[in-house]
């Protein structure tokens, strides 16, 4: 059963709409400079940008179309392996989510919603998390992207995997929350845990990564670190310094609660001084980075002052540790900023420097009046974080990190015995085995180079929402228990 709480909701925030100024596209700048060459895999579920939460809802999946257009416009598809992942199966969703909740998501439609209003309370459906057309396929698509990315990383098939449609960090085991229905991050981390003894989760969305923290709150195999705004009237109302995990997971949750208006310099300084000792102490073998873009300045729901360059600097810094890295999206409610940010960070992942001028693309009118990759976003909100308050947070977290030394998980072997047994007991689909051996695509369409480019631009895709893989795929995994 879910419980009703009085936490503030997203819907209390004012909604705004994009001002679309038509401008003539400028000359494309074509200089992309190579710095280093990690293998990067880019997952874009083909239809995921075509869903609509509702006319006045601030979450716009359409931002993914803008992002993809900029990524392709900059020619980044020439640097990466591009995938149209298959949808997650119901079995895969049930690896974390309750069976009754998955069944509800499967059954509910805007048409039959009247008969299911009793379930609305139970599953936290409402203004923040409305029922919209083809909701379940939307969930399966973005979750399928994160799962495919996780599988690829687990077997060393790529250094970095990106799924901007993922990162829905608020969803709970048995209920929707904060625009999130299925928690693709938890599902991807569970996939990584099949092979990785310790996974580090980092969250730079302006909202607390509560769903992921809660899922692994009792575990020392996942360390969650969330940087977010913390205030009594700000969603989701959790994420204080005192939330540190419990039982085996005690000290394996870190929260960095911030106030309005934090600027580039303070944020980057704090981020690096927390993450560097966290990574060297915890020694994760894989990292998941949620890049919610509502921490940028000028966001419609967020109240930070970060520039795209500063947000991207966090990605760059984490990349320097050279660990298998899953990069996910998240919040972000000004489409023009979100898409710029994630295109820029796709460049960061690939080690290329993108020209400041945006390339011509199908949505050019969104990016006026400057048509620049780095519009001024900072300085609109008063910075309430003082040097002293940030220093107190820094010292407090450094203190907490001392408890990680000697923690059981840090002394684990490469693959813990219980997980090894679990793997042996499991049947894998042949196509997934092939994929893990790096010689298959596990039901995914792979597109190399610009010849497949049109499929990402296609806005005329038909209404069945099934993606390229078409039919529902049943796994042969059966029910299983993950211990953590
Ligand atoms: Zn957010």
UniProtKB/TrEMBL annotation:
GO terms of biological process kind: epigenetic regulation of gene expression
Residues that hold substrate according to the record: 128, 178, 333
Record domain Histone deacetylase: where: 57-347
GO cellular component: Rpd3L-Expanded complex; Set3 complex
Active site: 170 (proton acceptor)
Keyword Membrane tagged: no
Catalyzed chemical reaction(s): N(6)-acetyl-L-lysyl-[histone] + H2O = L-lysyl-[histone] + acetate
Compositional bias annotation for Basic and acidic residues: 443-456
Location relative to the cell: Nucleus
Family annotation (Pfam families): Hist_deacetyl (PF00850)
Enzyme Commission number: 3.5.1.98
Highest taxon above the source species: Eukaryota
Keywords: Chromatin regulator, Hydrolase, Metal-binding, Nucleus, Transcription, Transcription regulation
Major location category of this protein: nucleus
Coiled coil stretches, renumbered: none
InterPro entries per record: HDAC_I/II (IPR003084), HDACs (IPR000286), His_deacetylse_dom (IPR023801), His_deacetylse_dom_sf (IPR037138), Ureohydrolase_dom_sf (IPR023696)
MF (Gene Ontology): histone deacetylase activity, hydrolytic mechanism; metal ion binding
Renumbered residue ranges of the record's region Disordered: 427-484
Presence of keyword Acyltransferase: no
Residues the record lists as binding a divalent metal cation: 205, 207, 294
Family: Belongs to the histone deacetylase family. HD Type 1 subfamily.
Protein name per its UniProtKB record: Histone deacetylase
Protein source organism: Trichosporon asahii var. asahii (strain CBS 8904)
